[in-house]
Amino acid sequence: MTPTPGPDAGLLLAGTRIVEVSSFVAVPLAGMTLGQLGADVTRVDPIGGAADYHRWPLTDDGESLYWASLNKGKRSLAANFRDPEAQALIADLIVDAGILVTNAAGRDWLDHDTLAARRPDLVHVQLLGRADGGAAVDYTVNAAMGFPLATGPVGVSAPVNHLLPAWDVAAGLYMALAVAAAVRRRDATGLGARIVLPLEDVALATVGNLGYLAEAQFGGPDRERLGTAVYGTFGTDVVTSDGARFMLVALTPRHFADLTALTGTTDAVKSLETALGVDFRDEGTRFRHRDTLSGLIRSWFLEHTAVEAAEALAASSVLHERYRTFRELAADPMVTDNPMFSVLDQPRIGPHLAPGLPMAIDGRREAPRPAPANGDDTAAVLAERLGLSADRLTDLTARGIVKVSAPTAQKDAR
Predict the structure, then answer these.
(1) Can you list the positions of beta strands (E) in 308-388?
(2) Which residues are tagged catalytic?
(3) Do 160 and 18 meet the contact criterion of CB atoms below 8 Å apart?
(4) Which InterPro entries does the entry link to (predicted)?
């Protein structure tokens, strides 16, 4: 049998097999990350795809760019989740692989105890919405975390949500870390692991780890909306004469000295220090007087073009970056000239620049691999892992237990 195309055998998790039963962001990200580290990841979905299979953004032909982007490098098995025979096949695959990552809940046949009774060293990692088993998603969790009421322009009272599903991303990376740690322990001791990760707890832990909860417990005020300012230090946005916008951050005295030198405001800032009786080498002092300092610094940028500003900033120590739209970013050298990106010819979508793992391992970067369509690998996975014959696969397909793609579709998906 021809070996299944996959990552290089020298990758960190080569030889590790994982079954993923998931939808949306966190668990698919965990599975993709583990796959990029070398694991053989099979995503198992209902026939026709889970709730995220057609999630926006879509191509003109209705293919989900979202789904394809978060499921690169996996294999896809499609089965009728309502059928006991399909459930038994999926359970057999999990027992064979020894690792399950999932956000499915309320399915007895995916329960840790049920599966671990058959394979005691099973690594079972489950994402929940809340610790009590209640449902939650990133956007509802975020509403309780304080950020929407501290984000946005000064003077706005309504909550301001952000586009980034930060808690999903953090949870997905926590899950990948949990799998890697559990596999390490299993290799050393033979012990399996039952790991439960509530999305809400990921958010709460992060808010606590950043000091926001401690600040509130010790009587600190509610965080005010700062616009683009940076709490506790000096940060501001500026606009150039041709309308480009930059974000500037001066964390250290050197950063701030370079910024004032660049903008020709050193003497004005020193005079302001004398008048106010303060020392702007202290970042807290820079924060408290941010509006006045920003007003001084912004004048220089209004008199210079984006190119002139970028050149001047690049020659200084000032932390800076130009604001970009997604469209501008996609055409920027930080994407087009970045070795993390390579051209991925994604079946059903077409060639485009796609990222691989955002780290180099032993000096190497692995190119991204295409995402499958629903059921592209059903036949191969069931034959390789469970030894099902062609006749059995034909019977299962005819009865709607599993979906087996046509050979041409399987070939195109590779």
Answers:
(1) 319-322, 341-346, 350-355
(2) 168
(3) no
(4) CoA-transferase_III, CoA-Trfase_fam_III, CoA-Trfase_III_dom3_sf, CoA-Trfase_III_dom_1_sf
Per residue of the chain (414 residues), what is the pLDDT tens digit? 333 445 566 789 999 999 999 999 999 999 999 999 999 999 999 999 999 999 999 999 999 999 999 999 999 999 999 999 999 999 999 999 999 999 999 999 999 999 999 999 999 999 999 999 999 999 999 999 999 999 999 999 999 999 999 999 999 999 999 999 999 999 999 999 999 999 999 999 999 999 999 999 999 999 999 999 999 999 999 999 999 999 999 999 999 999 999 999 999 999 999 999 999 999 999 999 999 999 999 999 999 999 999 999 999 999 999 999 999 999 999 999 999 999 999 999 999 999 999 999 999 998 999 999 999 999 999 999 999 999 999 999 999 999 998 754 433 433
Paired tokens of 376: 């592209």
DSSP assignments along 145-200, one per residue: SSGGGT-SSTT--S----SS-HHHHHHHHHHHHHHHHHHHHHHHH---EEEEEEHH
Which tokens go with 43?
């995503």
Q: What residues have CB less than 8 Å from 369, skipping those under 6 apart?
A: 5, 6, 7, 35, 72, 73, 344
Residue 365 CB neighbour total at 10 angstroms: 17
Distances in Å between the Cα of 260 and the Cα atoms of 222, 242, 286, 301 are 31, 21, 12, 12
* C-alpha dihedral (119, 120, 125, 126), degrees to nearest 10: 80
85, 45, 76: which is closest to 399 by C-alpha? 85
First to last CA, the chain: 16
Q: How far apart are CA 335 and CA 369, in angstroms?
A: 18
**Cα Dmax for the chain:** 88
DSSP 3-state of 260: helix
Cβ-proximal residues to 178 (8 Å cutoff; 6+ apart), any chain: 125, 193, 195, 197
Structure tokens belonging to residue 201: 């707890």
Backbone Cα Rg of the chain: 26
Gap between the Cα atoms of 248 and 210, Å rounded: 22
